[in-house]
């Protein structure tokens, strides 16, 4: 749980999350490119929202990817315990006779990366997609008992 509440909605901030590879950019949601992270046309869809929760059994990631098919999304695990979720939403083909009044849906490539904790079972990751929601489940290893201290009574 984050120690800092979000001021924008009920989402928790991941500012102090040691596993997050996200870099906070205060200008990322503005309609012009941020000077700190210039974007090209192919990266317009980068602000894909992903929730990460930890249960006693697993780490569960949920991403809202409306309009995408599972064939357009890629889930990968790198050797250094990094989960990468990426994909692309293609632009609709335009007809020369159409007049657009508003274009609000984003398109282009996206990629999100998360460093997983050491207690994950990297070879048992599962992913599923239903109704535009991608769910990635990363099982956790059983908690290893730390050696305790046992007092030995001295006789004599």
UniProtKB/TrEMBL annotation:
The keyword Cytoplasm applies. The keyword RNA-binding does not apply. Keywords: Cytoplasm, Stress response. Its main location: cytoplasm. CDD domains: ACD_ScHsp26_like. Pfam families: HSP20. GO terms for cellular component: cytoplasm. InterPro entries: A-crystallin/Hsp20_dom (IPR002068), HSP20-like_chaperone (IPR008978), Small_HSP (IPR031107). This is HEAT-SHOCK PROTEIN 20 FAMILY MEMBER. It comes from Salix koriyanagi.
């Amino acid at each position: 749980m984050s120690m800092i509440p979000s001021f924008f909605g009920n989402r928790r901030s991941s500012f102090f999350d040691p596993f997050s590879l996200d870099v906070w950019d205060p200008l990322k949601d503005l309609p012009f490119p941020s000077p700190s992270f210039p974007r090209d046309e192919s990266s317009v869809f980068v602000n894909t929202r992903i929730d990460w929760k930890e249960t006693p059994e697993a780490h569960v990631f949920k991403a809202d990817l409306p309009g995408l098919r599972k064939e357009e999304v890629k889930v990968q695990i790198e050797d250094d315990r990094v989960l990468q979720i990426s994909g692309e939403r293609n632009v609709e083909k335009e007809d020369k006779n159409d007049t657009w009044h508003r274009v609000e849906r984003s398109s282009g490539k996206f990629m999100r990366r998360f460093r997983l904790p050491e207690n994950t079972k990297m070879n048992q990751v599962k992913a599923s997609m239903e109704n535009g929601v991608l769910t990635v489940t990363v099982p956790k290893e059983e908690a290893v008992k730390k050696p305790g201290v046992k007092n030995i009574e001295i006789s004599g």
